[in-house]
Amino acid sequence: MKKIALFTFLMSLVALTAQAAKLELTEHDVVVGDKDADVLVVEYASMTCGHCANFHKDVYPKLKEEYIDTGKVAFVFRHMPWGNLALAVSKITECAGEQSRDKFVSAFFNTQNDWLRSKDPLASIAQIAKLGGMDKGQVDTCLLNAELHERIIKQKEHGMGQLAIESTPTVFINDERIVGTRSYETYKKMIEEKLK
Predict the structure, then answer these.
(1) Which residues contact 116 (CB under 8 A, 6 or more apart)?
(2) Gap between the Cα atoms of 5 and 146, Å rounded
(3) Phi then psi for 113, rounded to 5 degrees?
(4) What pLDDT is attached to residue 12?
(5) For 48, which of 88, 99, 129, 181 is 20 to 30 Å away at the CA?
(6) Which pTM value belongs to this model?
């Protein structure tokens, strides 16, 4: 019995190590906060996901204030678009540029109900992008960017294949996974444990 328990423990340790390796930063990741922080939080989200929008309205601002802006946590947002509309918004957030991407992600999540329910969602999305400084030509060029399209699809495929992500949001705090909507306190508790 002890051998089985030891084997199970070792296998779970190997799985956690493999997962952690897959969560390493990539050349396309935009890090918010100190990239050398002790805690890495990686979120996989779809721009059309209501639970993801709730995370960005209710949890992310507090995480940013308490942990990201203070250098304790590095935060990475990765795309997991469920459908073409989510993919379009993901592209626009990327085309906004590294300095503005976080603001664009927040803006789209904060207005998600408006553009999702619009009679012309793409026009509504373009209007939000315009408020962020992108004109219609830039938005159109961005939406037709084949290289960006492929990169976002590969990011999604990696999440689904290598990390077995099936729903959003899926958030990793170093080696631990949280699926779905949770309270800020849940994230805070896990981050504090990692900081010890």
Answers:
(1) 48, 85
(2) 49
(3) -60, -35
(4) 43
(5) 99
(6) 0.84
How many residues make up the chain in this entry? 196
Beta-sheet pairing, 73-79 with 39-45: parallel
Residues 118, 121, 125: CA angle, nearest 5 degrees:
115
pLDDT digits (tens, 9 = 90+) for 59-112: 999 999 999 999 999 999 999 999 999 999 999 999 998 888 899 999 999 999
CATH of 24-195, one of 3.40.30.10, 3.30.470.20, 3.30.70.100, 3.10.620.30: 3.40.30.10
Could you state, in order of their start, the residue ranges of all structural domains in the chain?
24-195
**pLDDT tens per residue, range 128-172:** 999 999 999 999 999 999 999 999 999 999 999 999 999 999 999
